[in-house]
Amino acid sequence: MKKDLKILSSETLYDGFFRMKKYHLQHTLFAGGWSGQINRELFVRNNCVAVILYDQKRDEVVLIEQFRVGAAVNPINTPWLIEIVAGIMESGEALEEVARRESIEEAGCEILELIKINTFYLSPGGSSEQITLFCGFVNSEKVGGIHGVPEENEDIFVRAVPFSDAYEMVMNNQIDSAIPIIALQWLALQRLSKS
Which of 15, 50, 106, 145 could form a disulfide with 86 if both were Cys (CB 3.0 to 4.6 A apart)? Predict the structure, then answer.
């Protein structure tokens, strides 16, 4: 048990494709002592792995495009987001296994070398999910087409684009999902440090 947190009780509000729990808790205060009771709903999701697929020789990144329900409810934006390969961790799976599995399933790419970038929360004010981000070095020469697992209703358009084009997509808001933005900014810094 954490010394700076007291979970007084919790209840499951919803248990479907995702889970929602409600926590009644207290935490320590910076000035000392304990907070009053705080009630918070938490979106509970397994941790995920994301991987930016990069071909160093061709200076290309592999991007995917797929339907996202979170974007579908926004009346202004399209529900088809440009992203990088990512997937939910299954019980007992190693991070690297997820990166390699998802790269094959979502993009038809075999990772030649894999390096860990970082692990971070996307929205810790309301979600338990952590993302572990990798860079996977690939040969992008024959990348493209439509991929995904039919049983999971995945319909993923895959393409390899020059890094400069992908970064331009970030700058002009064509890529508006946090994980690919973070990955492409990391890759931009790596490329700068080597020039």
Answer: 50
DSSP classification of residue 148:
-
| 65 and 105 share one domain | yes
pLDDT 10s digits, 27-36: 999 999 999 9
152 is catalytic: yes
**Domain co-membership, 88 together with 184:** yes
**CA 147 – CA 130 distance, rounded (Å):** 25
132 in Cβ contact with 179 (< 8 Å): no
pTM here?
0.91
Cβ contacts of residue 129 below 8 Å, gap of 6+? 43, 45, 46, 47, 48, 121, 122, 123
Q: Is 82 exposed, middle or buried (0-12, 13-18, 19+ CB in 10 A)?
A: buried
* Assigned token pair, 74: 């926004």
Catalytic residue (one of 11, 83, 152, 154): 152
Number of domains in the chain: 2
